[in-house]
What does this fold into?
Amino acid sequence: MQKPIAVVTGASRGIGAAIAKSLIEANYFVVASATSESGVSAIKDTLAENGTAFVLNLSDKSSCQDFCKQVTELGPVAVLVNNAGITKDTLMLRMKDDDWDDVIETNLSGSFRITKAMLKGMMKKRFGRIINISSVVGAMGNPGQANYCASKAGIEGFTRSLAQELGSRNITVNAVAPGFIATDMTNELTEDQKQLMMVNIPLARYGEPEEVAKAVKFLASDDAGYITGQVLHVNGGLNMG
It folds into this structure.
């Protein structure tokens, strides 16, 4: 394979789909994931000759192993974007153990498994770009999302620690933390709900998936070769910490 390989988990729609498109524009062969065969088929149709896709359930160890085996058989991975994740929102007093476990297992432990499997090829090549998708709530917190916020705060700590481990191998590790982004989920909100959220955003609008994708594309590029262990916020000023 002549093009370098970029892996994007959770790329069937929204931010993940935009990231996959941006990396294709940067001349990568994109290997994406979805949780279902129908999602994989849709991604393949979109990527065409510029990539492929496989099923991945991040909470299932064997699924992670199968996905990583399929990817690494194509060649060494140059860029890994850990984007896939889930939410199971509810107030803490109502949160079931499974609500907590599923989110942590998928968002945090799943990213660990995929990253570990991709590292051997990167270390052998002495090159790699690992970009973890966090969230503004990982820094701010958010009522009803203790599990999700914990998983994203964990991702940011994971990012910093791994950056220190891998810097000598010319592998950078960074995170991108989106704020409120216009996706299928935000489109379901009422106008009143949207306006209530907008009050705290200085730029007075939602971000677009493409704006997050451009941040990822930059961190994957040679221009970002001296940036590692950082969290790049893309949130319209919602959090300036």
Notes: The first strand starts at residue 5 and ends at 8. The mean pLDDT is 95. The two ends are 42 Å apart (CA to CA).
